[in-house]
Amino acid sequence: MFRLTSVAAVAVLVAGLGVAEAQAPLTASGAWVREPVPGRTVTAGFVVIENPGGADIQVVGASSDVAGTVELHEMVRSGDMMKMAPVKSIVVPAKGKVELRPGGLHLMLFELKKPLKEGDTVTLTLTTDNGATVQASAAVRKFRMQP
Ligand SMILES: [Cu+2]
Description:
By secondary structure, this protein is mainly beta. It has one domain (25-141): Sandwich (Immunoglobulin-like), CATH 2.60.40.1890. The chain has one helix at residues 2-22, and strands at 27-34, 43-51, 57-64, 67-78, 81-86, 90-92, 96-99, 106-112, 121-128, 133-141. The structure holds copper (II) ion. Copper (II) ion is lined by residues 44, 73, 84, 106, 108.
């Protein structure tokens, strides 16, 4: 019994070290994509990215099975208007998270390969600065402004 426990403890320790050495993976949750305006081939995607590791991780790119190109975007103030602009990377802080949401950071999906309707599911893939990828299954939803 003692022996079994020790082996398990060592295995957990080794697995833990392995993850820390290679790279702490990001997790993606709550992903969704806005139903595009009919006839448009561009839309936005949102996801919460968490970094359980002890070092900051940069997301440097994104892709999707339904889009020709995906860019990382932010909203910036221009006079009294909010405009969106591409960003090179999004830093996910160690032991922290970044929330991509309407009005803030988001993914921009261009060259949609098919019309997307509420209820569809698409895949979003994020690429980190060390070449790792994390995938999220994103539900297509209509975006309704809060009253
Ligand atoms: Cu955008």
